[in-house]
Amino acid sequence: MANETARDGRWSEARRERNRRGQLSESVAAWMLRLKGYRILGRRVKTAVGEIDLVAVRGKRLVFVEVKQRQTFEGAEASIPDRQRERVRRAAQLWIGKRPHYQCHEQGFDLVLVVPRRWPRHVLNGL
User: Fold this and answer.
1) If pLDDT is split at 50, 70 and 90, which confidence band does 102 have?
2) Please, what are the domains in the chain?
3) Mind spelling out the 3-state secondary structure of 23-82?
4) Is residue 1 over pLDDT 70?
5) What is the CB-side half-sphere exposure of residue 123 using CA atoms within 13 A?
6) What is the mean pLDDT of residues 3-25?
7) CB–CB of 127/82 below 8 Å?
């Protein structure tokens, strides 16, 4: 995995496939959140400290969502290291800092776990 970008800057086939699966999982997660009444404010939101998969709001609850796709729910949840959780929190602080009108919202750090042929699992404050 260390050398997934060729010298000409193109991604390897394996990297492109993982990226495609990730985008599909994020689309499924966004769709599920919309069905639950959330409005998606951003997808793959980039900040100086990292990327947030989804930013959504429902009422006064603003959520920063990490989406994980694995073969099992347990595997998906276990695949999130502490440093990634902290990165999402720092990125969220930067995102809110640029949007003061969201500072009064309750903030949540949620997970959406995606496994093949199963309904996604939304874990409130799972990060």
Assistant:
1) very high
2) 13-123 (3.40.1350.10)
3) HHHHHHHHHHHHHCCCEEEEEEEEECCEEEEEEEEECCEEEEEEEEECCCHHHHHHCCCH
4) no
5) 14
6) 76
7) no
What burial class does residue 113 get, using C-beta atoms within 10 Å of its C-beta: 0-12 exposed, 13-18 middle, 19+ buried? buried
Element holding 7 (H helix, E strand): none
**DSSP designation for 98:** T
Is the confidence at residue 50, as pLDDT, over 60? Answer: yes
Q: What mean pLDDT is predicted for residues 16-44?
A: 93
The pTM score is 0.85
Residues 62, 101: contact at Cβ < 8 Å?
no
Q: Report residue 108: phi and psi, to 5°.
A: -130, 150
CA distance 46 to 52: 7
